[in-house]
Specification:
It is a single chain. By secondary structure, this protein is an alpha+beta fold. The protein has two domains: 1-85, PG1857-like; 90-132. It has helices spanning 9-26, 42-51, 73-82, 92-101, 106-131; strands spanning 32-38, 56-60, 65-71. Helix 4 packs antiparallel against helix 5 (106-131). The radius of gyration is 18 Å and the shape is globular.
C-alpha cells in the first residue's frame, strides 16, 4: 500500500482528490488547483507535491485545516500577491481572479463578482445613509 494513503477513510479520499487534481494539472487541464485538507495531512501532501516537482503554497485556514494551492508558479505568485490567507476576505476582484485561475465557469464567476459587488455597494450606501 502507498504510504501516502495510510490512515483514515477521509485521508484516503482527500488524497484521491489531490491525485486527480495533480493529474489534471500535469495534463494541462488546469494551471492552478486548490485543495483543503486536515492540517495533520500537511506533510504527506507536501511530500507528494515535492516528489512530483510541483510548486505549491500552504495557507493555514485554522489549527485543524489547511489550503494548498499548487500549479504554475505564475498563478501561485498571483495568489501570494493577494497577501490574504482567508479566502472569505479576498476583495471582489481577487475572488474573481482566483476563480478564473482555478478553472471555474467564467459566466458563473462574472455572476458571483456582480453579486458580491452589488452587496458591497448596498452596504456602503446603507452605512452612508446612517451617517447622514
Amino acid at each position: 500500500m502507498n504510504t501516502f494513503f495510510i490512515g483514515s477513510y477521509y485521508m484516503i479520499s482527500d488524497f484521491k482528490v489531490m491525485t486527480h487534481l495533480i493529474y489534471e494539472y500535469k495534463k494541462g487541464l488546469r494551471n492552478l488547483a486548490l485543495i483543503t485538507l486536515p492540517a495533520i495531512n500537511r506533510q504527506n501532501a507536501e511530500n507528494m507535491l515535492t516528489l512530483k516537482g510541483i510548486d505549491y503554497i500552504v495557507q493555514e485556514v485554522s489549527s485543524e485545516k489547511i489550503n494548498i494551492f499548487f500549479g504554475d508558479i505564475r498563478c501561485l505568485n498571483i495568489v501570494r500577491s493577494f497577501n490574504q490567507p482567508s479566502l472569505s476576505k479576498l476583495s471582489n476582484e481577487q475572488d474573481f481572479i482566483l476563480g478564473i485561475m482555478l478553472g471555474y465557469d467564467r459566466t458563473k464567476q462574472c455572476e458571483r463578482y456582480l453579486s458580491r459587488f452589488s452587496k458591497q455597494n448596498q452596504q456602503k450606501t446603507s452605512t452612508l445613509a446612517q451617517a447622514v
